[in-house]
Amino acid sequence: MKPPLVLSLLTCALLPLIAACANPSHASEADSLRERLAELPGVASADLDYTEPITLDSGKLALTVALEPEAEASAVVEVVATTYAAFAGTHHAEEGDLDITWRDDVVHLRSFEPEADLDDVRAAAQRAVPVLERESARVDLETQDVDAAPHVRTLMTVTTAPGVDALLAALPGLEKRYGDLPQTDWTVQADPEGSWTLHSSGGLPGADQLTLFHRLRAGLPQGASIWLGDDDWASVALPAGTSPDATAAVAERHLGILGGPGTASYDVQVGDELALSIIDGECSFGTGPIGARLDGVYADGCRTVAPSS
Question: What DSSP letter does each residue of 227-247 carry, written as one string?
Answer without folding.
Answer: EEETTS-EEEEE-TT--HHHH
